Amino acid sequence: MTKNSVLPVYSVSGNNFEIGFEIGKRFRLQIADFLEKSKRLKLLRTVEKKTPRLQKWMEYGERWFPQYMEEIRGIAEGSISSLTDILLINCKYDFPRKACTTVIFKESGRMILAHNEDNTKDNLNDCQLLKVYPEAGTPFMSFCYPGMIPGNSFAFNAYGMIITNNAMPTPDIRMGCPRHFIDRSQLEGKNVKEVIKRTLFRQRASGGSFNVVSQKEKEAMNIETTSERYCITEVVDKYLHTNHYVSEEMSSLEKRKSLLRSSISRYKVGSRLLSDVKEKTPQTALDILSSLEAKPYSIMRIDKRMRVRTLFTALFDVSCDGITLKVYEPNPKIQEEDVFIESALDDLI
After folding, report:
1. How confident is the model at residue 260 (pLDDT cuts 50, 70, 90)?
2. Spatial strand order in the sheet of 341-344
3. Nearest 5°: phi and psi at 138?
4. Domain extents in the chain
5. Pairing status of strand 219-225 against strand 209-214
6. Does the reported pTM lie above 0.70?
7. 110 contacts 318 by C-beta, under 8 angstroms
8. What CATH number has the domain spanning 93-348?
9. How far apart are CA 99 and CA 300, in angstroms?
10. Which of 102, 145, 268, 281 sits between 20 and 30 A of 34, alpha carbons compared?
11. Residues 79, 26 contacting (CB under 8 angstroms)
12. How far apart, in Å, are the Cα atoms of 123 and each of 7, 33, 169, 286?
């Protein structure tokens, strides 16, 4: 079911270059619009001029994930965009960011993973939801930002692996493989063990917070990483994550207040709301993610004073019978029936 929305749904297939080319060609106008207005890209261009590192990132990408470099080249050619700009956008997660809130509920026979996808207003109207059928690889569905290869944000694959990501203030960023290549690699994982192995790729340049649910294995977990450290937390009941390290092993890591004011506020409010949960239902998860408490640093980020806002809310309902993804536009009173995009695992296989 798809209502009129700023998030189009599109299918692509072929080899890696062909997938990228189709994405670039189909969303050429959106990519051009984003590259023109993106303040973040302008900042990345400036940083690259002062401290060149793109060539090294390309070398790391070619060495370990040449297939994803082909997708990036395809996007640049298909959208008739600067390859340098497309590369910079795909490396943006290796700079400190502050976005997204995730909630997980787990009980016998059912898991719910709900996620607010937060980003700058520059991205409005230019994102897409993609069904991807690689010639050699795992079919998957993923939210996708303009100019970027699929992965990151929220996604699931044909093996029933669901992944959402939260940006993190990695304190030990280094030269290595850009994190977004790892995001893309996670979508090839057939089970929890494989996703963990891909997440902990040793040559990663930076880290993140990765929420993983396996439909077949009935497991849910969070993986916090820096470029060198990690912590895996099994979810057995209720869980919430924003954009700072919260596990016992990692919570002592850097907490710059200027960067994390919003994250800490959302985490405090979300944790309290989570502790009050009596019934672990989809609507309860949506209620948490639509909270406007503690504005302008609320969980649902729709305050006009803030540059970063909630773009979409994704809700995965997981059971032995399958997976259902519902996507909502930001609303402080989201109801389950407000879904404007609905997809199921059966639609992908």
Report:
1. confident
2. 238-241, 101-107, 110-120, 308-319, 322-328, 341-344
3. -100, 130
4. 93-348
5. antiparallel
6. yes
7. yes
8. 3.60.60.10
9. 11
10. 102
11. no
12. 11, 9, 21, 22
